[in-house]
């Protein structure tokens, strides 16, 4: 074999190894999914007002480096700020009111890693396709923002659904109806495409809401092989959480871990909720 032929064969071998290694990496790479109630801007929060917290939120997100973030209580001014400070992310979503204003179920995602195949919204009401619609004795419109993502490296797809259920004690029946509406939507999705549901569900795991959703989904906190942090998520800016009301559910994925993010700086927190981060693999 000539020197030229040997060189060509070596080049081909290296290319094959690099290509197959790239495929292997794409097939086994993990995704980090965050659920984060960011707390809307409310002057009544005093020292924990958004203008004080917003650099902490950005710092936390940079440190955690999630691939997808399902945000609750997000308003557009907050979303625009995050988009400026985190240029590696794109985002989607609209306000819950009929005119598109108000709280967003905003979904941020790494645009170098993922692309959106399709996305949309629906309202938790008797008329889910009517923007801003309210039934079931809700005080405010409640909705879901969703997206079908495709990973750029290998073309694998998954759905992300993000929601925020009502908060009052007397809203339990409405929360159950909302959970049922979400479960019905998920049941219509292709069975072979994984699903992740993030949200602030404003109730505890012993509720009927949790029971409805876990008929077809897995609660990442109770099923992940590795769990870190505390289970309770709402702490009201005190750091002393006593309710596990923020959940991540999955279907059709391999869970690796889940953690609650309790980071603070100078006794200040990015929000009145601890974010959750689930690490998973797509089949």
List the helices and strands and how they pair.
Layout: H1 3-28, E1 31-37, H2 50-64, E2 68-72, H3 76-85, E3 89-92, E4 107-110, E5 114-123, E6 143-151, E7 157-164, H4 172-187, E8 195-200, H5 208-213, E9 218-219, H6 220-223, E10 227-228, E11 246-251, E12 254-260, E13 276-281
Parallel strand pairs: 1-2, 7-8, 10-12
Antiparallel strand pairs: 1-13, 2-4, 3-4, 5-6, 6-7, 8-11, 9-11, 12-13
Q: Give the spatial strand order of the biggest sheet.
A: 3-4-2-1-13-12-10
What is CATH's topology name?
Deoxyribonuclease I, Chain A
CATH class: Alpha Beta
Output the number of helix runs.
Answer: 6
Could you list the spans in which at least 5 consecutive residues all have pLDDT below 50? 2-27
Coarse structural class: alpha+beta
How far the N terminus sits from the C terminus, by CA atoms, comes to 43 Å
Any idea what the CATH superfamily is called?
A: Endonuclease/exonuclease/phosphatase
């Amino acid at each position: 074999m000539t020197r030229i032929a040997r060189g060509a064969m070596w080049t081909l071998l290296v290319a094959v190894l690099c290509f197959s290694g790239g495929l292997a990496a794409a097939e086994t790479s993990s995704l980090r999914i965050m659920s984060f109630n960011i707390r809307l801007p409310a002057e009544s929060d005093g020292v924990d007002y958004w203008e004080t917290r917003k650099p902490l939120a950005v710092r936390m997100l940079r440190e955690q480096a999630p691939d997808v973030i399902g945000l609750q209580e997000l308003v557009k001014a907050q979303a625009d700020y995050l988009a400026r400070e985190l240029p590696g992310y794109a985002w989607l979503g609209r306000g819950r009111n009929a005119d598109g204003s108000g709280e967003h179920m905003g979904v941020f995602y790494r645009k170098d890693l993922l692309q959106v195949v399709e996305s949309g919204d629906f309202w938790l009401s008797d008329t889910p396709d009517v923007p801003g619609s309210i039934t079931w004795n809700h005080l405010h419109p409640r909705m879901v923002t969703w997206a079908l993502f495709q990973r750029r490296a290998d073309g694998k797809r998954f759905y992300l659904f993000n929601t925020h259920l009502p908060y009052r004690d007397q809203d339990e029946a409405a929360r159950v109806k909302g959970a049922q509406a979400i479960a019905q939507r998920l049941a219509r999705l292709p069975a072979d495409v994984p699903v992740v549901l993030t949200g602030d569900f404003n109730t505890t795991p012993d509720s009927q809401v949790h029971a409805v959703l876990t008929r077809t989904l897995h609660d990442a906190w109770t099923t992940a092989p590795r769990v870190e942090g505390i289970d309770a998520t709402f702490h009201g800016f005190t750091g002393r959480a006593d309710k596990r009301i923020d959940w991540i559910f999955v279907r059709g994925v391999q869970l690796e871990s889940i953690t609650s993010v309790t980071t603070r700086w100078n006794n200040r927190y990015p929000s009145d909720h601890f974010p959750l981060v689930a690490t998973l693999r797509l089949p």
